[in-house]
Amino acid sequence: MFNNLFKLYRTSTLKTPLEDFTTEGLAGILQLNEDICNDFCLSFLNLPEDIYTVETQYFQAISDDKPNCIVDLVIIGEKHVAFIENKVESSEGDEQLLRYKLALHQNQVEKEKYLFYCTKYADPKEPKEFDVNFNQFRWYEVAKFLRQYKDVPLVQSYLEFLTSHKMSQDNTIKSEHLVAMENLLKTIEIVEFHIEKSKNTFELIFGRDKSDRNFHWAQIKNHNRIGYLKTNVLNSLSGKWSEVLYAIHLESLKMITQIYVDSDHDAYDAFVDLKGVEESGFSRTYFENKGLSIKLEQDLGLYLNNEQSDKLIADWFSLSFNKIKVLIQQNNHLQWNLVL
Questions:
Q1: What is the largest CA-CA distance in the chain?
Q2: 259 near 293, Cβ under 8 Å?
Q3: Computed from CA positions of residues 49, 52, 58, 62, in that sequence, does the dihedral angle turn out positive or negative?
Q4: Which of 63, 201, 239, 268 has a CA that sits 20 to 30 A from residue 133's CA?
Q5: Residue 290 phi/psi, 5° resolution?
Q6: What pLDDT shows up at residue 93?
Q7: DSSP state letter for 44
Q8: How many helices (H) and strands (E) does the chain have?
């Protein structure tokens, strides 16, 4: 939902206010869910017990050469107040935090004062500059906090939004990452070997793809897999996407072979009603607002430490290709762009 709303906003305005949009999204979650708000205030921000409300774009007049101060996010209670400055792709504005400090001292005299600075990238500040309770955190820490509430649809949608803008991942290099980097090239070489070994069998059945979409780095980055595919397997007058693909998925550690069709494809409804899917051992995976995958899967761990694994993996892929072929032939009322 948040991704769609942000895209809509981008098409209807000359500006792309990612920071404001991200702030309003977080504020909306806190305003609509009292339990999440209390947990955020007490556990995440470590604010004292109070009855807190959340506001955005909070105007404060200050005695300064720039007298108007608009605070991104404010959490205000009866005895305590917190100003939060949020940044995504930009750095701190012109002495913005110092102006927030002035606003706290001049407008929130009776309350205990807190100042927070939330960023996507590291931007360390010196707390003693602000003479209030100062702390800073990163957007990935907000995402980590919210994941405990991912069963709440609004939170899950917001987490997807943060992920799409690369704000939910901790990019601190740790020892396990160094070990993974050290073994990355060898892992890719092994996976590529098994994909290449079955490529000729795949092309004999489904044909060779004319596009360059089999570039493996794009497959890894966008789908966390290494594979090979044939596109435009189901005719579309409007040129919508369809594919037959086989791959090894690097996160689930599964071998997969699938037919995938975009939801805006001319023949999508007919593809959804494909006959003989479950009976032939296939499963269906629906991707919201994207499409449907009908696929076969096998755990890669079944071939662990097996010296015959190259043959066994190739045999499984070959069998899966033929099952896809039979499924297509059983549903020849669709306009397949394949000669089988």
A1: 79
A2: yes
A3: negative
A4: 63
A5: -125, -60
A6: 74
A7: I
A8: 11, 10
Amino acid 14: pLDDT:
46
Q: Which residues contact 81 (CB under 8 A, 6 or more apart)?
A: 74, 75, 104, 108, 111, 112, 113, 114
Give the type of residue at 307.
E
Distance from C-alpha of 154 to C-alpha of 32, rounded to nearest angstrom: 10
Domain ranges of the chain: 2-164, 180-330
CA-only gyration radius of the chain, Å: 26
At residue 9, the pLDDT reads 56
What is the chain's percent helix, strand, coil content, to nearest 5?
A: 45, 25, 35
Q: What one-character DSSP code corresponds to residue 42?
A: I
Helices assigned H by DSSP within the chain: 2-12, 18-32, 34-39, 96-107, 139-146, 153-164, 175-197, 199-206, 216-223, 268-272, 309-330
CB atoms within 10 A of CB 308: 9
What is the pLDDT at residue 43? 97
The Cβ-side half-sphere exposure at 3, using a 13 Å CA radius, reads 12
CB 113 within 8 A of CB 130: no
Residue entry with tokens 């072979």: 257
In this prediction, residue 216 carries a pLDDT of 66
3-class SS of residue 60: strand
Q: Which two tokens stand for residue 61?
A: 């007049």
What are the residue ranges in the chain where pLDDT is below 50?
8, 14, 16
